Q: What sequence folds into this?
């Protein structure tokens, strides 16, 4: 922040461009191309206050362009579905299987997907499905919103690049600093198909909201200096080690899923026994706050399970929390 402030031109303190600081948009274009394979140039990048903000703006723009419905993966996070619904379109759910979203079930003018690491199930959108999804979007003229919320954190395989690279004129790529730095920053970015750039820029201006310019300049500085890459490499190693310790501590009776990426995994119990409520209660008794899968379905819950986020616990508390989780599972199985 100090370095960014020191370098900032006088104009940095004026009313700022609604698309975001040119310095950050240029830096992001290069960063996203190299780190996620995104087809990006500064003209199609808009800086926003994270995925939630992008979702609100995009829902409004797409609704104004005639999209009365938007599809979400089922299960998914209700907060983003609510944001979409509050901004115009009706929300419908599309099933997710072991290969990701079932493209053959899609029949909406827009869809929101988490291809790198489906939230919450943790599956990665399979190569065949990626091709099918972008082909579907190209054939039907639908818009795909790619929520790349934890794409920087892949542990087991080669990096899985952004879906956007397959169809940059049909996919809106959305990135965020919520997993790499901190959710309170409220800083993210959209890489837009060209036909949407102007309407999204106008909607953004009309919303009156934009991230603080100094934060944007500091972010550009962080990336340019190499410190952001270094930070992500360090975090990736730490999260991989946490994931491995967590997996090693789990009893054989549970089925961990979605383990190859991100900051969470899902635990399922064969035959859904014990029930989710029972396991969550045993965890709560040991002061472990977890969420279940049940609350993430659109309509009737279809499967139970535990969503275990391992990113946020303090380093010194992680071992004890893992042990307590193990004990909670033993207690109810
Ligand atoms: C599925 C999913 N999408 C997006 C985000 C990030 O949203 P935001 O950038 O608004 O913090 C999160 C949470 O970090 C998430 O779990």
A:
């Amino acid at each position: 922040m100090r370095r960014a402030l020191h370098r900032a031109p006088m104009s940095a303190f004026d009313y700022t461009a609604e698309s975001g600081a040119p310095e950050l948009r240029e830096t992001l274009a290069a960063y996203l191309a190299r780190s996620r394979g995104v087809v990006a140039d500064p003209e199609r990048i808009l800086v926003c206050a994270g995925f939630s903000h992008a979702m609100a703006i995009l829902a409004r723009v797409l609704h104004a362009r005639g999209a009365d419905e938007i599809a979400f993966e089922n299960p998914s996070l209700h907060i983003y579905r609510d944001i979409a619904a509050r901004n115009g379109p009706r929300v419908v759910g599309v099933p997710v299987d072991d290969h990701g979203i079932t493209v053959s079930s899609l029949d909406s003018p827009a869809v929101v997907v988490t291809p790198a690491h489906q939230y919450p199930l943790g599956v990665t959108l399979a190569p065949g499905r990626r091709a099918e999804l972008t082909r579907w979007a190209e054939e039907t003229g639908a818009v795909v919103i790619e929520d790349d919320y934890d794409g920087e954190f892949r542990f087991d395989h080669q990096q899985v690049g952004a879906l956007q690279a397959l169809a940059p004129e049909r996919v809106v790529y959305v990135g965020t600093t919520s997993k790499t730095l901190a959710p309170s920053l409220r800083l993210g970015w959209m890489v837009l198909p060209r036909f949407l750039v102007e309407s999204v820029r106008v909607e953004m201006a009309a919303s009156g909201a934009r991230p603080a310019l100094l934060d944007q300049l500091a972010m550009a500085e962080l990336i340019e200096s190499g410190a952001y890459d270094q930070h992500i490499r360090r975090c990736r190693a730490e999260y991989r080690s946490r994931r491995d310790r967590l997996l090693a501590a789990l009893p054989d009776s549970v089925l961990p899923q979605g383990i190859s990426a991100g900051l969470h995994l899902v635990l399922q119990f064969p035959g859904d026994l014990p029930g989710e409520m029972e396991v969550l209660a045993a965890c709560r008794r040991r002061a472990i706050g977890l969420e279940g899968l049940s609350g993430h379905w659109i309509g009737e819950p279809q499967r139970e399970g535990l969503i275990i986020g391992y990113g946020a616990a303090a380093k010194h508390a992680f071992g004890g929390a893992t042990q307590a989780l193990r004990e909670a599972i033993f207690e109810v199985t």
User: Anything to note?
Assistant: The chain is about 40% helix and 15% strand.
